[in-house]
Amino acid sequence: MSKTKGFLLAVAVAALAFTFSCSSDDYKDDGGGNGDRDSRLVTGSDEAWIGLYYDDEGIIFWSNGEFAIIELYDGTWELSGGTWTTRGSELMLSNGSYSETFAYSVSGNMLTIGGAVFIKTSGINFGGGGGSSSSVGGGGGRSSSSVGSGGSSSSSARSSSSYGGGSTCSANFRTVRIGSQTWMAENLNCNVSGSKCYDNNPSYCSTYGRLYNWYTAQSVCPSGWHLPSMEDWEVMTAYIGGASTEGKKLKATSDWNGNGTDNYGFSALPGGGGFSDGSFYGAGYYGYWWSSTENYTAYSRVMGYGNEDAYWYSDVKDRLFSVRCLKD
Questions:
Q1: In 10 A of CB 80, how many CB atoms?
Q2: Which terminus of the chain has fewer CB atoms gathered within 10 Å of its CB, N or C?
Q3: Global model pTM greater than 0.70
Q4: How far apart are CA 311 and CA 301, in angstroms?
Q5: Helix (H/G/I), strand (E/B), else coil: 214
């Protein structure tokens, strides 16, 4: 089991324990969270929203207005909780001694807080009963990104290349030149072991390309191309004017729930992400692209449907993300 999936399971189990050991009276609102509850978040009594806020911190939001946090601190799992309310576009958390406010949005079964994604999950029964999660999803907090400046010229063409390893790929793909670099102008769609279509549905591959684990992504690019490092990607970031507007400038003008302007013909698409066990999240809302850079975990470039920027995120290597290859 991957570190992330194991952590999410721990979140669900600990949250169930929280339901039996605590009552809502233990976590009274201190007044900082006065407000309504967004009707889109108030789901059935056996449903909740579950996900990661950071790599080592998971949160469950229950529809009755309570939440639980499980956090790994100095090698020990710590559990806390409180109440949530909303006011306009803000979600407020309180536990009697503190309150915090976050910007949030809801679309379908996805709750987004900053760069983190929470998925509506059935089978977690608050206040009794031994439910267990039937589907989980995760997102991530932000890591560092760089800001630069540069020009605005680009060119686009189609390229042919050969693939090795018995892979099933299209040998003819669009490319784009941005500054001194030549990039694929579409997400790689190469059917190899270690890759999947989102939701195991081939129609997603046709639109967004395939999703790859990091190990496969290292060698899947065709001859004469390679998986870009963080440094490779940031050369492009600097050329187009910095990370703060990178998402807007590179996102495609269609197929997003909040399209970009595609100033350079890069046509970034929101392929979402997936776990190696076949569960998925975020297609149409988030794009994640592997880099070759690793440090125990591996780094991906992230763009979101509601944001104009792009940022780095560190994740476990068996997560499934999109690939854009860079010409050698």
A1: 13
A2: C
A3: no
A4: 6
A5: helix
How many CB atoms lie under 10 A from the CB of residue 286? 26
Alpha carbons 278 and 327: distance in angstroms, whole number: 31
CA distance 215 to 196: 14
**133 touches 123 (CB < 8 A):** yes
What is the rounded distance in angstroms from the CA atom of residue 323 to the CA atom of residue 288? Answer: 8
CATH superfamily placement of domain 3-122 = Uncharacterised protein family Atu4866 (2.40.128.290)
Chain-centre distance for alpha carbon 274: 9
Structure tokens at 40: 């889109």
| Contact call for residues 187 and 269 (beta carbons, < 8 A) | yes
Each residue's pLDDT expressed in tens, for the chain with a length of 328 residues: 444 444 444 444 444 444 433 333 333 333 334 468 877 777 765 678 787 665 556 788 877 788 888 766 566 666 777 888 888 778 887 776 566 777 888 877 778 876 677 787 765 443 333 333 322 233 333 333 222 333 333 444 444 444 443 344 655 788 999 999 999 999 999 999 999 999 999 999 999 999 999 999 999 999 899 999 999 999 999 999 999 999 999 999 988 988 899 999 999 999 999 987 789 999 999 999 999 999 889 999 999 988 899 999 998 999 999 999 999 9
Two tokens, residue 123: 């089978």
**Phi, psi (rounded to 5 degrees) for 17:** -60, -40
Domain ranges in the chain?
Answer: 3-122, 154-327
- What is the rounded CA–CA span in Å between residue 236 and residue 164? 27
β-partners of residue 103 are 90
Q: How far apart are CA 193 and CA 168, in angstroms?
A: 10
Helix (H) or strand (E) holding 8: helix 3-21
CA distances to 93, 158, 288 from 170, in Å = 49, 12, 21
